[in-house]
Write a structure and sequence with these properties.
By secondary structure, the chain is of the alpha+beta class. It contains 8 helices and 6 strands, in the order H-H-H-E-E-E-H-E-E-H-E-H-H-H. The longest helix has 22 residues, at about 180-205.
């Protein structure tokens, strides 16, 4: 049975549904990529500044931090949201489509772990070496990894050359390595270096392989996850809440929060009745905005439950 405070909380969110949709559409129409969310942050700062809690801008003017008025010694609950967009052209025929060319809110995060391969050569073909490296990694990395362990190696960018009939001096590859286990990641990186050394020897090129530290795996706290699941089932019913059978291999910097405090990341369905749904990271990405109050209610109810003595 739904408690009185839950009904009151839901009612507040329902009354503000129009404002929630309006904010979402404003952000959708004025997207900014990661590291450049200046106007987005300023808009959010002005929005929160009139709401009461102390507000401050994030580093370099990107991001907004809203603090509660509780004493520093008291327990606090953090709620985090992305505000950066992706470099994708918005092709939706809607009135709130992106007003910024080649930038749109096609997802909620834009953080990836990169493995950069450079190939500084002498009268050899770095494009051929790059192709050999990609093929070799795709072929052999899965073979040396325990089938019970998840490893994803993929390339998303390749840059090299300015003319069709001139061998370039260098080729730059950028991609990702994703694992669920730090030791598996370390073994995979070591093997990539060994494979690159072999290709360097065979092709006569010089390969430099660099890895950023990247983001750890999202490790949800069991107790908070159970609470979020219970809250969602109370709100939506048993049939509307499911547990993912397999961990996602997507990169998500919310993992950094979970290294310092217990928390939970959950997914919210947003496709509505649209079929077929275009999916994330596509030029026609959009959401059924009726999902907004659902997400707000789950977050708000969970915060209230966590705040109980």
């Amino acid at each position: 049975m739904t408690a009185t405070w839950q009904r009151q909380l839901d009612a507040v969110i329902d009354r503000n549904f129009g404002e929630i949709v309006g904010l979402r559409r404003h952000l959708h129409m004025h997207p900014e990529p990661s590291g450049a969310e200046l106007q987005t942050s300023l808009h959010l700062y002005q929005l929160f500044a009139g709401a009461g809690p102390p507000v401050r801008m994030g580093p370099e003017g990107c991001g907004v931090i809203v603090d509660s008025r509780s004493q520093a010694s008291q327990r606090r609950i953090a709620v985090r949201a992305d505000c950066d967009a992706l470099r994708i052209q918005d092709e939706k025929p809607v009135e709130y489509h992106s007003q910024v060319p080649q930038v749109m809110h096609a997802c909620g995060h834009d953080v990836h772990t990169a493995a950069n391969g450079h190939s500084h050569h002498e009268s050899v073909d770095p494009i051929a070496a790059a192709a050999e490296l990609i093929s070799t990694l795709y072929q052999f990395i899965p073979r040396v990894t325990d089938s019970q362990e998840a490893v994803v190696v993929s390339f998303g960018q390749i840059h090299g050359g300015l003319n069709a009939n001139v061998i370039p001096e260098e080729v730059v590859l950028e991609g990702t390595v994703r694992t669920l286990n730090r030791s598996v990641r370390e073994r995979t990186i070591a093997h990539i270096h060994r494979l690159a050394d072999g290709i360097e020897s065979v092709t006569g090129t010089q390969l430099a392989v660099d890895f950023d530290e990247g983001t750890a795996s999202v490790d949800n706290d069991l107790a908070i996850t159970a609470l979020v699941e219970r809250v969602a089932r109370e709100l939506l019913g048993e049939s509307s809440v499911t547990q993912l059978q397999r961990p996602s291999m997507g990169s998500e910097d919310f993992a950094a929060y979970l290294e310092h405090a217990p928390g939970c990341m959950f997914r919210l369905g947003c496709a509505g009745d649209r079929s077929p749904w275009p999916g994330l990271h596509t030029p026609t990405f959009d959401v059924d905005e009726k999902c907004l109050p659902v997400g707000a209610k789950i977050l708000a109810r969970t915060i209230v439950e966590l705040s109980k003595p």
